[in-house]
Amino acid sequence: MATSTVYGSNMDDANWLKHEVGRHAFHPMADPKDTVGNPPPIIMKGDGVYVTDLDGRRMLDCQGGLWCVNAGYGREEIIQAITDQLRELPYYTNFPGSANAPSIRLSAKLCELTAQEGMASVLFGSGGSDATETAFKMARQYWKLVGEPERLKFLSLRNGYHGLHFGGMSACGGDAWRRSYEPLVPGFINVESPNLYRPPFEGVDPETLADMCANLLEREILFQSPDTIAALIAEPIQGAGGVHVPPANYWPRLREICDRYGILLIADEVITGFGRSGELFGVRNWGVKPDIMCVAKGITSGYIPLGATLLNERVASAWEAQGPRSVVMHGYTYSGHPVACAAGLVAVDIAVREDLAGNAADVGSYLLAGLRRLMDRHEVIGDVRGKGLMIAVELVCDRTTKEAFGPTDPYPMAVSDKCLSNGVMLRTIVNKFIISPPLTLNRAQADDIVAALDDALAKTPR
Predict the structure, then answer these.
(1) What is the pLDDT of residues 303-314, one digit of tens each?
(2) 2 pLDDT above the threshold of 60
(3) Domains detected in the chain
């Protein structure tokens, strides 16, 4: 890989930045050679739902940073909270012997917001991968505390994504996230999920498909022996796996099966938490109460790293037991970081006060309808799906056979590049465009997204 001398360089020079991108830092989810050979836009500013790159291009951010800038860019309330906390106390640990006020306030606020789900205790981390890793460890410890130490295994769904620590990666339901880092953690078992566009069983309606997948889950539980299963983890709506919205009866079936066999249900709300799905929390779309909830991303609107794992009253009460095994031997240097928690208090308040979930539901359904109308004009669109402001547009070589574009086919990225030149930044994952803008998006801006994609598809040769 090419190298350069950094010391003494003019690091503010635009040409220097363009030359250096990817040369010293590996970028997540990218081949380093591609980053250097085809440098991405260098984002310099954010304002509302827009970002501006080094060349001065102002683009509507359909990535929402990375599913996370729910309140939009430039929110002075969050910036002020961060600044004030930095001046007052930039850091102090929550390890034994001390605490800090912002983490106390935010933990109380999160339990208040999730009272409907019965959440009672919070463990903080630095992001979504921390949150799911914490959930796995707390689940295993819970079963030891209540006298069922053989409950060690975890169930998860095909296409599911749960972060990239070794536990979360082992729960992920896609080969791309796992293959380079195998062998994985033992005790993680993938089961079939009700993918409505590419269903595991053809010719059945959504509700029947959900029942069939739930029945397969139950068969796997019986095969593994229920008293060896600690928990099932699932996203209310699968995000990175392609924005798959489950049939309405699926999550209630998950809750029913977990209750039948005494298995904990973990809701991975890292993406769906704080409004993106059109409800404050994704599980509320299905009227289900999980035992454990994982949140991150929208908790600070992406302004500063933070994640949290919430335990309901039943699970949390296990730590009332006496003895060495009741110590929470888990945590991170930055668990309950005061600056992050101060930002979280304000970002969560904005989400509730401005009803970002309600706006996501309204503008999201409007945007979804507009994108679906493009299917009449462009045969290359195989499917448009989503809920709230988490939407996927899937491109196919043939709509009848659903043949997907391969990872080396340049067409989807060429369409995405044309959208970029039209002032709209999409996230492209092989043959899918993921649309997850800030939850402050309005209908006029939704129209701009549809128009940009329509033009890109019309003008990009296959």
Answers:
(1) 999 999 999 999
(2) no
(3) 41-71+356-459 (3.90.1150.10), 77-353 (3.40.640.10)
